Amino acid sequence: MKGWEANIRKVVPYVPGEQPQGDRLIKLNTNENPYPPAPGVEKALREMDPDRFRKYPDPASAELVEALADYHGVGADQVFVGVGSDDVIAMSFLTFFNSEKPVLFPDVTYSFYKVWAELFQVPYETPALDGAFGICPEDYRKENGGIIFPNPNAPTGLLLPLDQVEAIVRENRDSIVIVDEAYIDFGGVSALPLTARYDNLLVVRTFSKSRSMAGLRIGYAVGDPALIGALQDVKYSYNSYTMNLPSQILGAAAVRDEAYFRSTVERIIETREWAKEELGKLGFSFPDSMANFIFAAHESVPAAELYEALRAEKIYVRYFKQPRLDNYLRISIGTREEMEALFGFLGRYLGERKR
Ligand SMILES: *Cc1c(COP(=O)(O)O)cnc(C)c1O
Q: Alpha carbon 4 to chain centroid distance?
C-alpha cells in the first residue's frame, strides 16, 4: 500500500437514477416533470445575451433570491439558493450538523442523507418508519444533533400532517430541523410559514420536480436570517460562484410565471389520482402518495421481474434492491399518454403471466 492511500477519504457514493438516452422511451424513474418549463423561461432564454457570460455571475444570486422572497412573502435575508437542493442540503449538513450527538433521519428516506452524514463524518441514527411506512414523531423526541426528513417522504410519497411537523420542530428548539419539501407542491401543506415562528426550522425546496427544471440545478432554503447567514458564510468559504448566470435568470423567470406552474402541477395531481385507480385494478398496493410518484408493490409478481420487463420495453421506473423496499417500484407520474402506455403494457404482461 502506498503511503498516501491511508489519507484518501473513502466514501460509498449516492447512486442517482439512470438517465437513459434516445427517444421513444418512457422515463418514469427520477421524478422529473413531464411538462416543459414555464413559457416565461423560454422567452428569457431567447433574450439572454451571451456577452454577459464573460463576467462572473452575481455571487449572491440577488435576482433569484428576490423573486423567491416575493413569491413566499419573506425577506431576502431569509432565502439561500444553491445548485439544486442537493447542494443546499449538503451545505446545511456542513453548516448545522456539527454536534457529537447523532443527527436523526428516517431509516427509509432519501438515501443521500446517509451519504452526506458519512462524507462529513456526522454521527447519525435512523429511527424506523412504522409498518405502514409512516414517520413516528415520537422517535424524534430524544437527544440529537439535528433532524432532517422529506415531506412528503421519499420514496414512499407519504405526507406528515403539518401539526406533526410542527410538533417535531417545537420539541427540538435546541436543534436545527430541516424539512426537505422537494414534493410539497403536489398537494401537501408546507411548513414554510412556520419559519416565521421557529428560528430552528429550515425548509428546503427544489426547481427539479414541480418547476420542470432539473437540468438547471436550482434549489433553495427558507429560514431565520441567522440560519441563512450561517449558510452563506459556509458557502463563501467553499465556492463563491456556485450558481451560474442562466440558472439565476431562468429561475427568476420561472418563479414569476405562477399561473403556468399551478396548471401543470394540477395536471400531475389529476394524473396521479387516476394512476392510483389503475394501479389498484392491476393488483398493486401502495402508500397514499402526495408526491409526483407512486411507490407500488404487486400482489403476486415480484417487483424485480416487473422492473426488468418494463425496462425491456424502454419503460424506466426506479427499483431499490434493499430490504423492505425490494418488492416495490417507484413510478414517477408522467403525462396521461405515458401512463396509459405503462398500464397497457402491465395489463398485457400480467394477463399473459397468469395463463
Ligand atoms: C429530488 C430530490 C432532491 C434533490 O433535488 P435537486 O434539487 O435536483 O438536487 C432532494 N431531496 C429529495 C427528497 C428529492 O427527492
A: 37
Going by alpha carbons, the residue nearest to atom 2 of ligand 1 is 182
Residue among 31, 208, 218 whose CB has most ligand 1 atoms within 8 A, to mutate:
208
Choose the residue to mutate in 80, 109, 180 for probing ligand 1, maximizing ligand atoms within 8 Å of C-beta: 180
Ligand 1 residue neighbourhood (C-beta within 6 Å): 84-86, 110, 150, 154, 180, 182, 206, 208, 214, 219
Q: How many CB atoms neighbour CB 23 within 10 A?
A: 5
Mean of pLDDT values over 263-291: 98
Q: Residue 264: helix, strand or coil by DSSP?
A: helix
Distance from residue 184's CA to the centre of ligand 1 (Å): 12
Question: Closest by alpha carbon to 160, among 136, 182, 176, 138?
Answer: 136
Question: pTM of the predicted model, to two decimals?
Answer: 0.97
In ligand 1, the atom with minimum distance to the C-alpha of 85 is 7
C-alpha 188 – ligand 1 centre gap (Å): 16
Rounded distance, CA 57 to CA 217, Å?
15
- DSSP helix, strand, coil percent of the chain (3-state; round to 5): 45, 15, 45
Q: Looking at the predicted structure, is the pLDDT value of residue 355 above 80?
A: no
The closest-lying atom of ligand 1 relative to the alpha carbon of residue 84 is 7
CA distance readout (Å), 15 to 165, 275, 320, 341: 28, 27, 11, 27
Of 208, 21, 190, whose CA–CA distance to 110 is shortest?
Answer: 208
User: Given the CA of residue 110, which atom of ligand 1 is nearest to it?
Assistant: 13
Task: Output Rg (C-alpha) for the chain, integer angstroms.
Answer: 21
C-alpha separations of 155 from 196, 225, 260, 333 in Å: 29, 31, 27, 13
pLDDT tens digit string along 11-55? 999 988 889 988 889 999 999 999 999 999 999 999 999 999 999
Place of cell 409478481: 301
Per residue in 82-102, pLDDT tens?
Answer: 999 999 999 999 999 999 999
Kindly indicate the confidence band of residue 353, based on its pLDDT and cuts at 50, 70 and 90: confident
Q: Provide the pLDDT confidence category of residue 223 given band limits of 50, 70 and 90.
A: very high
